[in-house]
Write a structure and sequence with these properties.
By secondary structure, this protein is α+β, with helices and mostly antiparallel strands. The chain is about 35% helix and about 20% strand. It has seven helices and nine strands; from the N terminus they run αβββαααββαβαβαββ. A nine-stranded mixed sheet has the order 1-2-3-4-5-6-7-9-8, with helices on both faces. A hairpin with a 7-residue loop joins strand 2 and strand 3. The longest helix is centred in the middle third of the chain and has 28 residues.
């Protein structure tokens, strides 16, 4: 069964599945049966199902339509490469700093949202990503390129880095507070303590009231409303 956390696991900042050695974040009650894990072999099938659903794709940007097997495989490979590199860096830092804060990393290694069933197996239900900031609010192409490059040059752990989150959940799990809890957990259990993230943005289509509300529940505020897109921000008190 998932759930026990050793001191070594605590240093990693993630719990470890004792059967598979897979790291994960578990949500707090009443969603303790929801975990967020790194991508796995075979998740391309789940990504295809998720992003080819027209009820989802209509609210996402930029997602190719139609979303094909080739897109799913490429997305999974990129995700696995990123997660693997981050986990290796986390283990290195934890080894070098066993008695104190191990240092900051430049991303989140867990992104696949899964529901743990009574028999201990789990099912893929959603996806969340954390990346260096998107500047969809900067309309001038040249200026957008300049600020993006400036943000990308900042060293890992710089509190002024603009981070961006994107998230999606299978429609059958909407309305249960799951994604609200996922965002809260990822922000407060990972982005802030392990990335020193103090400034996060998210963009939602103006008609996507559900995403706007769940972001607001997590302390995001609207910084700009346009005909098609809402620009929302979250900051720590120190930012």
């Amino acid at each position: 069964m998932l759930g026990q956390m050793s001191s070594e696991d605590s240093a990693l900042g993630l719990q470890i599945n004792p059967l598979t050695d897979e790291p994960f974040l578990r949500l707090a009650s009443p969603h303790e049966n929801i975990i967020v894990t790194p991508p796995r072999v075979g998740d391309d099938e789940h990504l295809l199902t998720l992003f080819s659903d027209n009820r989802i794709a209509a609210w996402l940007y930029p997602i190719p339509i139609p979303f094909t097997w080739a897109h799913a495989r490429a997305m999974l490979q990129e995700a696995k490469d990123e997660a693997g590199a981050l986990l290796n860096e986390i283990r290195r830092l934890n080894t070098e700093h066993p008695d104190g804060h191990p240092g900051f990393v430049g991303g989140c290694p867990v992104r696949c949202i899964r529901k743990v069933q009574n028999d201990g197996t789990d099912i893929f239900i959603g996806y969340i990503t954390v990346h260096r900031g998107v500047y969809a609010d900067v309309l001038d192409e040249t200026e957008c390129q300049i600020v993006t490059e400036e943000n990308n040059r900042k060293t890992v752990g710089d509190p002024s880095i603009r981070w961006s989150i994107r998230f999606v959940l299978l429609p059958s799990y909407h309305g249960q507070g799951i994604m609200t809890a996922v965002i809260s957990r990822v922000v407060h259990a990972w982005i802030v303590p392990r990335m020193n993230g103090q400034y996060i943005v998210a963009f939602t289509f103006a008609g996507n009231i559900g995403s706007k509300r769940l972001l607001q529940k997590n302390g995001f505020v609207v910084r700009g409303e346009k005909i098609k897109v809402n620009h929302m921000e979250w900051r720590t008190q120190n930012a």
